[in-house]
């Protein structure tokens, strides 16, 4: 399966395993790359030296291309970027910041740069900044999200109409059918997050994985727009947050309730009551925990079957 994305990353299938905080360590990234897709280490949940350790372990576990996802809002971003260069990483996905800040600096060192956006406006800014490709992520996605609530179905063709660089669709994609749909809409590849949370190689706590598998339609909600919009599974913390909203809270009130390390408590440590449980709406279609290799094989098989069905219409 060859197209602009497989050629850009030198991978077999145009699928990227999303770099998700507390889920995407070296085991997940290497398993993804070994399955013919692009694996990403999620640097957002790692101190710089922990990231270095994960990169080194990933290099030992795969001889295939892999990359690092870097949210640019962290104070030690310079140290993280230096480690990425020192360790010879050739693919970086940036998010949560201005793509102009690091794109040229990384590209001058031979690194392919992809930026994550949630709107046409920011897609154009990323293209102007010179990135090699963009991920356009719809409102269905888990974790931190766009404020405009534009769904993947509408976002992808609108971005495709405006940009010339390779386009990767994200948000609500966990099956081969969804992959085919987004390629028909104009994407060159897909980024998949939630489906890989419920994999054996994910670094998420098993209790969180079980919550994902048992999630139903309507069990997630986008909230905390005043800080950084995030899609969460509804639990005790989420309910406390909704009660606080009834009092017309200030930003400081929201920050006080959120506290520190709540995402780690939920997804990595398995605190299902008081932790942040970030996952996409597509969790309602995820029913089991299985190896990454099996997930990829099923997606590709379903993609090919869906193509045959569509060709008969």
Average of pLDDT: 96
Tell me the domain tally. 1
The CATH superfamily label reads Aldolase class I
Could you say which structural class the secondary elements and strand pairing correspond to? alpha/beta
β-strand percent reads 15-25%
According to CATH, the fold-level topology is: TIM Barrel
Helical run tally: 14
What is the level 1 CATH name? Alpha Beta
Description of the molecule:
There is one protein chain. Helix content is 42%, strand content 15%. The protein has 313 residues and is of the alpha/beta class. The protein has one domain (4-203, 283-311): Alpha-Beta Barrel (TIM Barrel), CATH 3.20.20.70. The protein has an 8-stranded parallel β-sheet with strand order 1-9-8-6-5-4-3-2. Helix 2 runs parallel beside helix 3 (48-61), helix 3 (48-61) runs parallel beside helix 4 (77-86) and helix 8 (176-184) packs across helix 14 (292-311). The longest helix has 20 residues, at 292-311.
Per-chain topology:
Layout: H1 4-9, E1 15-17, H2 26-34, E2 39-42, H3 48-61, E3 66-71, H4 77-86, E4 91-95, H5 103-107, E5 112-117, H6 120-128, E6 133-137, E7 143-144, H7 152-162, E8 167-170, H8 176-184, E9 189-192, H9 194-197, H10 206-214, E10 220-223, E11 230-233, H11 236-245, H12 251-258, H13 262-268, H14 292-311
Parallel strand pairs: 1-9, 2-3, 3-4, 4-5, 5-6, 6-8, 8-9
Antiparallel strand pairs: 7-11, 10-11
Helix pairs in contact: 2-3, 3-4, 8-14
């Amino acid at each position: 399966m060859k197209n602009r994305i497989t050629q850009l990353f030198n991978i077999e299938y145009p699928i990227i395993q999303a770099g998700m905080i507390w889920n995407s360590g070296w085991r997940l990234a290497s398993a993804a790359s070994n399955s013919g897709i692009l694996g990403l280490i999620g640097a957002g949940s790692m101190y710089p030296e922990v990231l270095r350790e994960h990169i080194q372990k990933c290099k030992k576990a795969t001889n295939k291309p892999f990359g690092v996802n870097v949210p640019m809002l962290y104070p030690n971003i310079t140290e993280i970027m230096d480690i990425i260069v020192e360790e010879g990483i050739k693919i970086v996905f940036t998010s949560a910041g201005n793509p102009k800040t690091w794109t040229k600096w990384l590209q001058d060192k031979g690194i392919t740069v992809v930026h994550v956006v949630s709107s046409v406006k920011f897609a154009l800014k990323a293209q102007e900044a010179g990135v090699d490709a963009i991920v356009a992520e719809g409102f269905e996605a888990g974790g931190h999200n766009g404020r405009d609530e534009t769904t993947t179905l509408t976002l992808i063709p609108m971005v495709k109409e405006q940009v010339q660089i390779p386009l990767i669709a994200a948000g609500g994609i966990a099956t081969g059918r969804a992959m085919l749909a987004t390629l028909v809409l104009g994407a060159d590849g897909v980024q998949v997050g939630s489906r890989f949370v419920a994999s054996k190689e994910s670094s998420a706590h098993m209790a969180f994985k079980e919550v994902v598998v048992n999630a139903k339609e309507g069990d997630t909600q986008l909230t905390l727009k005043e800080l950084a919009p995030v899609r969460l599974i509804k639990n005790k913390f989420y309910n406390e947050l909704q009660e606080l909203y009834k009092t017309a809270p200030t930003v400081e009130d929201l920050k006080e309730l959120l506290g520190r390390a709540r995402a780690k408590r939920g997804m990595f440590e398995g605190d299902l009551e008081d932790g942040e449980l970030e996952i996409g709406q597509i969790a309602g279609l995820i029913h089991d925990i299985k190896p990454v290799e099996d997930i990829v094989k099923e997606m590709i098989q379903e993609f090919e079957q869906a193509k045959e069905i569509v060709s008969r219409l």
